[in-house]
């Protein structure tokens, strides 16, 4: 093989296919080695602010450097500066799972380098996405109206549930005002209002800011004793706003709130939305994955009355970030709100009306081939493999909840419907904070916190790709040891 075929091209500075093949193996080896020894790292990075930057050159190189030097810096600087989300002892926030098939799908997407803004710019990119989202709808037993082969519905991969709620809000706003805001601006439509529970994700507030509805017009509705949205309080808020001349545009219900995985009562919420003709968006970012298992599909009861729905395979379905599946019952409402067709994007396929152009289903024009990694994951694990891990994670979380109940020093702070356990030390916030800080500071596990009814609580989220019962048992043991030292 010639030098040109196997090494860097001195004339173009590009990495040749032969060199890419050789260097690619080194990168794959680094990733595999990292996963094999991931438990050797402290889960929470111990570096101080500015430490990573100070360890690297302040200016870019004039001459290109070999990949070996870059990988050496990954080992020396980057890995010690990471909080290791793929560690089996990472229990903070919600999982941000990755897996071998997902990484390989992402690599293939990057290597193919396609831009899927239009069907015409890469037909396979569009059609695989449509197919894999219909597969996912089948696996989760979603309402038939969300499938691409339904008369009006369909789905698209967004980067996150935050983008999904923003797109839902824009579509709902345009439907409620008959397109007036999109053409004449917000002032022309008068006061527009949006509703979610007091426990809903912060993305709802960000969406109302971006969409011009404004935080003053976001109603944080009271919750019940299970921390789920109270339908009576929602109806009262809607009635008050309508009587004052406002136009309600969107209600966001949550299946699995970030704080405690509270599950809003979709049938009752949907009934209120029907009475006021307001768009209902259901955010099931993490917990929606539980519906892979028939015994957990009760979480979606009433979903058939929703206008839109989102779930993140990049949380609990072993598909690396970013990958949010966003479903709508009326694709025309979404497309009409977001579609702009400049002359340079016109093409015969679009004009025919026979294809989907996903640029019209999202805020950006450009889009990556995200469907590949989800396709790889679904084909690698199969429905049975995915269900196995979801059931295992839920069972482990339920076991942890039992351990908490059995220890008089701790108490559960919220119901445990799925895979998140929220608890606190009975002596109050200071004790809870000290126990959690000791475990996090040890590097053996990472836990995050929230507040429930004003009190600090520890959250243990069980859902990591590599997490098994032994890891949760070890974390619980460390929490008990920390409590012994108070």
Structural overview:
Helices cover 42% and strands 12% of the residues. By secondary structure, it is α/β, with parallel strands linked by helices. β4, α11 (266-276) and β5 form a beta-alpha-beta unit. α7 (161-176) crosses α13 (331-338), α15 packs across α17 and α16 packs across α17. The protein has three domains: 3-97, dopa decarboxylase, N-terminal domain (Up-down Bundle); 114-368, Type I PLP-dependent aspartate aminotransferase-like (Major domain) (Aspartate Aminotransferase, domain 2, 3-Layer(aba) Sandwich); 383-484, Aspartate Aminotransferase, domain 1 (Alpha-Beta Complex), CATH 3.90.1150.10.
Largest pleated sheet = 7 strands, mixed
Architecture of the largest domain, CATH level 2? 3-Layer(aba) Sandwich
Helix content: 40-55%
Overall mean pLDDT score? 94
Count of spatially separate domains: 3
Cross-sheet strand order for the largest sheet: 1-7-6-5-4-2-3
List SSEs in N-to-C order.
HHHHHHEHHEHEHEHEEHEHHHEEHEEH
Radius of gyration: 24 Å
